[in-house]
Amino acid sequence: MTDLSVKMEISFKSIGVVHTPFTSREGMPIQPSGAAGILGTIELNEDLVDGLLDLSGFSHIYLIYHFHRSDGFKLQVTPFLDNKVHGVFATRAPMRPNQIGISVEKLLAVRGNILEIENVDILDGTPLLDIKPYIPAFDIYKTEKSGWMENNRNTPRQVKSDDRFK
Amino acid sequence: MTDLSVKMEISFKSIGVVHTPFTSREGMPIQPSGAAGILGTIELNEDLVDGLLDLSGFSHIYLIYHFHRSDGFKLQVTPFLDNKVHGVFATRAPMRPNQIGISVEKLLAVRGNILEIENVDILDGTPLLDIKPYIPAFDIYKTEKSGWMENNRNTPRQVKSDDRFK
What we know:
The structure is a homodimer.
Chain A lengths: L8 E5 L2 E4 L19 E6 L15 E7 L9 E2 L8 E2 L12 E12 L2 E5 L7 E8 L2 H4 L27
Antiparallel strand pairs in A: 2-3, 2-9, 3-8, 4-7, 4-9, 5-6, 7-8
């Protein structure tokens, strides 16, 4: 049943870079919900600026980016918000087989190739892979269960990152 | 201000493959919200199965995948749900500079390296890049505006894909 595509290497190029106040992996906000009011900018490659047409109509956007400071991966990790080990795919930890991060950011303004964003939980210098509009009709789901997060008393507002994924 | 990382090539490997009823890009559901009840499976690479520990506690998961049947990209597109041109970053269209798709799927069961999923809007054979838990506290945002989607009378329940992104 295994498809040949499973072994395929897939190459992307950064479409721009995210500028934020965070130059160290320690002490960072965990998730945009722990980064209220923190401002950043996206510097999109200038040859892609036509792709931003009408983006400013959306108040929230997905950023898809490369966790460029994570080397290697672990299949089981203890996430910042818990004290138990979980499979990496059951967490949002950066040390993943493919080091891809997603964050929903508030979009404040688009000026040429610069996007001003808020609620930024991303390291300075992060290579950006994609921007997509956050659309409630597509992106909000009623969940029945949220696994280890349900019994967890920590929230992103209370917890910052430490050096465990160095 | 431009960082050298902007030009960097970033390589990923498929972590598995998505099996679905959809072998053609035409007539497919648009977004999981247009794919109610449609079943699929994920076949995760067997060496990654330890990464699934505790994932079954979550009712919904993000899949991040490669739009492997899209060649090249356009900076401005007319999305399936509208009749006007928009910047590709203001749409979820597949012909993007980096052909990365995200979908939130309902997770029905995890059996070894096989995940049973529902509400599948993905082409058969799609290479999977990442799985993350969908966590309401991280992923649900109150939006102030939704751009061109606001005035749009079409919904994913009414519209299927056609051959415009071939």
